[in-house]
Amino acid sequence: MAVQHAVSRSIHRLGRIARQALVAGCLVPASRLHYRTWRRWFEALRDHKAFFHDILANAPTLLETTRDSGRLLRLTVGLPLRLACEILKQNSVRTACAHLIQQSGLAHAFPQRLAGNLPRPRLVPLLDGLLEPGSGRRHAQAVATAWQHIGTLRSPQAIDPAAVRRHVVGCRDFTGTTTAVVAHWDPQGVVDAYVVYLCRQFKKLGWKVVLASGGPVRCEERPDWADAVISRICDGYDFTSWKAALATFPTLLACKELVLCNDSVFGGLGAYGAMHAKMAALPCDFWGITESHEVVPHLQSFYLVFRPAALRHPAFSDFFDRVPLCNARTEAIRCETTLSLWLALHGLRPAAFVPCVTAAWQRVNPSCERWAELLRLGAPVFKRELVLKNEREVSLVGWMDRVIATGYPLALLVAYCNRIGVDITPAIHANAGKRAWPPCVQARYRPLPAASPSPKAASPQEPSPPIGVFLHLYYLDVLEEMLSIVRNLPDQAHIFISTESTAKKERIAAECTKRGLASRTEIRVLPNQGWDIAPFLVGFAEVIPRYPLLLRLHSKRSTYLTDADGDAWRGLLYEALAGSKQQVERILGLFQADERLGLLCPPILPQYADRLGCGGNFARMRSLLAVQGLRLRPDTPIDFPMGAMFWCRSRVLQPWLEQRFSFDDFGPTKETQRDGNLAHALERLFLFGCALQGYTWSRILPAPVDQDGLFSRAWPTASEAMCSHG
């Protein structure tokens, strides 16, 4: 398997290199039109990445120019440029060609495969000759190969009725219905919002839904998203959960259509009904979304559909009778890879919504490595492991845009990842982690350990080092919320507050006195310039180096958002950085345990991932980094603590303190100017300072605060996302 994965990765890398070479070749004709003179052309060519980036940045203008020119220029310059843009947009040469062909109205003149109409749903033989009638040589060889793959048959093993608990039962008879049995497992027994959303998509189609969990579950007494909820206490994976459901409700074998699926995918990215309508035209007995040739030819088990001919056939019941009750992952894989062949050997016809089109020697997992194609073809699923670990190193470029385009509430995905403590920063940045430092700060990112250490108690001879807490208060209605967060900090935290008027200073001082914080608080009135960045880096420039560790917060209002969204986002940032005493202790323990850790920032919201670029700040960022001896390229992926709140070591800020900025360098704060100013450029450079000083950085997730593991102020909450999508 390791060799197969290595070969598959190598093929993907070669494909990516070939795709990049094709894009570069398509941009070359447009380069002469863009740079106009040979001198400018050669000067730009010295920096080859900027050479191509500038052409792409001006592609709309260049395309408009070619449209107004002669046919020769449209063909030699405009067409290759459009192809390059489509390849980068679709991340697929075939799909890019298909789009151009369809836009030109010439789709009928090209093969269907080039036009992007294949692969289509169809019957799949699994093995060549397996579905052919008679006793021909090919059929006999296919049967022998199938039995070789299946191997020795297991002995039937009945499931003890006492090992299955009917947690909630609203329906007992499933005769004549279309029923989805959703295999679920969670170590805490949580039924996550994305699973509930999946079940509700089935209920919208008028189906019955059975949630079959691998352990005790916590859910409402009468959920509106399931007709039955059962849990088992016996060992096994998803096949064991399906076996338990079949044993508990024998009438499932009398269904009009039985869907066996699991929670290993984020489901509902599009319409299940449309997919089933396409498959209804095929004369098959059972089908799956994807056909795979990995290990052996089979239909992947994350979504399987069985019709009456398969459900009534003794082979179906016989197979599930032989499903072992054990926690060996190899047995679960064996069940998945042999079910399709087992049923096909008994004369049942399989089909696939997305048949396998790769060569037999390419052992790919289509649900992972062909995720983009699946979404384009209408498969309403996105594999969960791509976001959680992506062990296959599959390219995820553009995954969020594609998921959002289907109408799927991305907050469900984020809420699940946050609940189980998975930072999806690498997934958001796609392949940025492959870049090196300098100047890509993503190379300095390190995920936090699963078990976070507690801070070491300081001995009497070694008092705890002081902590500097820097707060900027412009919106006084956030004062109470901010000071309540400050109460979670240890006693050695010294508080420095900046505001822009004496009246606000007096109000803040009164609140600090009321809360017993006056003795360790200093309040400064500073010019309303440079947003919240200048009061921090200029107003407290002489104070910052005194504290080895510091926390920075401000009264973020986000006036370009609605009040509810802005408040929720600020609350999420506060909770991640100092939401409780336990959270603060965890953060201090992380800094004590890892001397290389330089900065901790809150999680990034995928809804805002498109803001991670330089935007209109590139010119200022490039000049600021040039002082540090770094050359920033336009296509370099960047990251920054969005919201400008974080914990860090004071040395991280040293490169920017050394430049000795003044308030005049920043200019007045203008609500209409959110890009292209010094404050927003510096906000995007905090992680560069971390890397310049030899530190790593990480994202810290808020601690769960309710029984479902969701955050009290997640933006938006998973429940709100589900309600807004029905």
Structural class: alpha/beta
Please state the average pLDDT score. 83
Radius of gyration: 29 Å
Distance linking N and C termini: 42 Å
Q: Could you give the count of β-strands?
A: 19
> What general form does the structure show?
globular
- Residue share in helix: 40-55%
Strand content is: 5-15%
Q: Helix tally?
A: 30
Main sheet summary: 10 strands, mixed
Multimer state: single chain
Low-confidence stretches: 105-117, 705-726
Characterization of the model:
This protein is α/β, with parallel strands linked by helices. Strands 1, 2, 3, 4, 5, 6, 8, 9, 10 and 11 form a ten-stranded mixed beta sheet that branches. It has a seven-stranded mixed beta sheet with strand order 15-14-13-16-18-17-19, sandwiched between helices. Strands 7-12 form a two-stranded antiparallel ribbon. α1 packs antiparallel against α5, α7 packs antiparallel against α13 and α23 packs across α24. It is globular, with a radius of gyration of 29 Å. The two termini are 42 Å apart. 43% of the residues are buried. Mean pLDDT is 83; it is low at 105-117 and 705-726.
